[in-house]
Amino acid sequence: MNTTTLSGKRLASLIQQRAQDQARLAQHEGIHPTLAVVVATDDESTHWYVRSIERAADRAGIDCRIVDLGPDATEQVLTSVLKDLSSEPSVHGIILQTPLPTGVAADSLVGLIAPEKDIDGANPLSLGRLAVGRPAFAPATARAVVELLEHFEVPVAGRNVTVVGRSAVVGKPLALLLLERDATVTVCHSKSGAMETYTRPADVVVVAAGRTGLLTGAHVTEKTVVIDVGTNVLPDGTLVGDVDEASVTGVAAALTPVPGGVGSVTTALLLLHTVEAARAQFLPRASKLTVMA
Ligand code: NAP
Does 122 sit in the ligand 1 pocket, CB within 6 Å? Predict the structure, then answer.
């Protein structure tokens, strides 16, 4: 079996180009799309990721403000910063980057991000709106999976899709987006038991668990398209997904690589969402916020 590699690089650059084109249009309309990324950690991989967003934003003509509060930021400080950014007219998109300082929970903080600026779908209001088909930004990673499947013309309507992981940022919103596209969705989690029961009958398997080597060749068949959302940093600094690439290659029909798969598309979508948010906030009648996927 020849397993096709579904690289996200071409799609990411197409989306990045769309964000750039729309940002240019916005500039003509007198809007300067601006993304604020709030960081409160000294975790080096987080800072590396935030710098990569900043560089991509710069290329797309989007202002990116890194609000670095340091690893000792208190919940009060984070609350105040998020409230200020939510009411600041020159900021159109807000991301609260995790991890947060020990003892500070993201749950209540993300609820402070104004829904129209919630370009990574972190506010529970955004998830609730997605659930009932109301206008909202989907988390960029969940949308990236859907965009990848569309880009590679992998049908989901009427097909079985199994999502491994049920977090509010990936698994649950992704299940909603797939249901919206008429897929029959099964969601697995750590208590599901024998995973192959759910993954082998599926046409598409999306793994978003954060567990190295979780999905192996025994969990898939020659018809399975595998989307690997996982990002795990090994002790030697190598980035790997949740899929045991060696054993799945040669068994499954197709597989996204890590890095170079879902992650690259996610970053481009954050930028596209920012420009869409900016235009929707500035020109509410001309560009209305729709379900963003
Ligand atoms: P999370 O909040 O830790 O959720 C992980 C989910 O996986 C949970 O629902 C958990 O089940 C489930 N799980 C854990 N072990 C499992 C097992 N052995 N079998 C089946 N399910 C299992 O993680 P997340 O934020 O959703 O992120 C998931 C992965 O995606 C991480 O590697 C993260 O780094 C990556 N990620 C990548 C991007 C990107 O742009 N590429 C963006 C976001 C996240 P329970 O609910 O039962 O605990």
Answer: no
Angle at which helices 44-60 and 9-28 pack, to 10 degrees? 60
Nearest CA to ligand 1 atom 32: 210
Q: Which residue has the tokens 């398997």?
A: 205
CA distance 203 to 215: 15
Is the per-residue pLDDT at 288 higher than 80?
Answer: no
To test the pocket of ligand 1, the residue of 43, 48, 189, 233 to mutate (highest count of ligand atoms within 8 Å of its CB) is 189
Q: Measure 268 CA to ligand 1 centroid, in angstroms.
A: 21
Alpha-carbon distance of 154 to 144, in angstroms, equals: 14
What CATH number is given to the structural domain containing 193? Answer: 3.40.50.720
Residue among 89, 111, 118, 215 nearest 163 (CA): 215
The range of the structural domain enclosing residue 90 comes to 24-117
97 Cβ inside 6 Å of ligand 1: no
109 occurs within a structural domain? yes
pLDDT tens readout for residues 2-40: 999 999 999 999 999 999 999 999 999 999 999 999 999
Residue 89 backbone phi and psi in degrees, to 5: -60, -25
What is the identity of the amino acid at 117?
Answer: K
Query: Does residue 11 form part of some domain?
Result: no
> Could you tell me if 217 and 177 lie in one domain?
yes
14 in a structural domain: no
Question: Does one domain contain both 64 and 107?
Answer: yes
